[in-house]
């Protein structure tokens, strides 16, 4: 796998640079069990919830399980759980820092495009001393239409001022992959979860960890 002419890499955050999905699962699962009697496993979380927006997950709960709840309620209750948890316990994904180091050494520009809010970015990446690697952050509060809409990646590309064929996105879910691809960008999908691998089966570039990425960029 060789990807030529890359001048900038736009990274997703959750599941791509940070191993945060179990953190989110462990905060959502007790709420779903207590409030709605719905017990989910981590595999269920990866299969049905990971990589999606709050709006979509609320709709999913209604459509699949008949659970009547609101975005406001789920926002308030999940954020209350997050506040009681320690986000600094969230680890980096394998080879995340090494990849950022190598990209920086190559002179390739780096930015972040995430559906998470800036508080999450600052807390987790700040804890790992990674904030300075990024030229800018496109977070949830900066766009009207989050992933899978192309808006976040169109905004990031505009900020870079580069041609689209010079920009590479790195994503771990079909939601993010759809966003980047719809924005006209090349995208590397990186995931170790079989359910997501199945959904990303048509991706041109599909790898299981970031160690392969740096050697793929000319």
Automatic annotation (TrEMBL):
Its cofactor is Mg(2+). InterPro entries: Beta-PGM-like, HAD-like_sf, HAD-SF_hydro_IA, HAD_2, HAD_sf, PGP-like_dom2. Keywords: Carbohydrate metabolism, Magnesium, Metal-binding. Belongs to the HAD-like hydrolase superfamily. CbbY/CbbZ/Gph/YieH family. NCBIfam families: HAD-SF-IA-v3. This is HAD family phosphatase. It comes from Sphingobacterium bovistauri.
């Amino acid at each position: 796998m060789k990807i030529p002419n890359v001048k900038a890499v736009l990274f997703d955050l959750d599941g791509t640079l940070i191993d945060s999905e179990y953190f989110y699962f462990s905060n959502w699962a007790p709420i779903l069990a207590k409030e709605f009697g719905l017990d989910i496993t981590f595999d269920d979380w990866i299969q049905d919830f990971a990589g999606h927006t709050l709006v979509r997950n609320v709709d999913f709960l209604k459509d699949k399980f008949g659970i009547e709840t609101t975005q406001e309620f789920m926002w308030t209750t999940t954020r209350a759980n997050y506040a009681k948890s320690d986000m600094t316990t969230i680890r980096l994904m394998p080879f995340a820092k090494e990849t950022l180091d190598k990209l920086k050494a190559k002179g390739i520009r780096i930015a972040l495009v995430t559906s998470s809010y800036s508080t999450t970015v600052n807390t987790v990446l700040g804890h790992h001393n990674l904030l300075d690697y990024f030229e800018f952050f496109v977070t949830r509060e900066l766009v009207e239409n989050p992933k899978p809409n192309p808006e976040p990646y169109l905004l990031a590309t505009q900020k870079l001022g580069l041609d689209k064929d010079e920009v590479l996105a790195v994503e771990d879910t079909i939601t993010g992959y759809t966003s980047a691809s719809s924005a006209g960008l090349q995208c590397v999908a990186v995931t170790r979860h079989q359910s997501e691998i199945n959904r990303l089966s048509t991706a041109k570039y599909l790898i299981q960890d970031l160690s392969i990425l740096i050697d793929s960029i000319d």
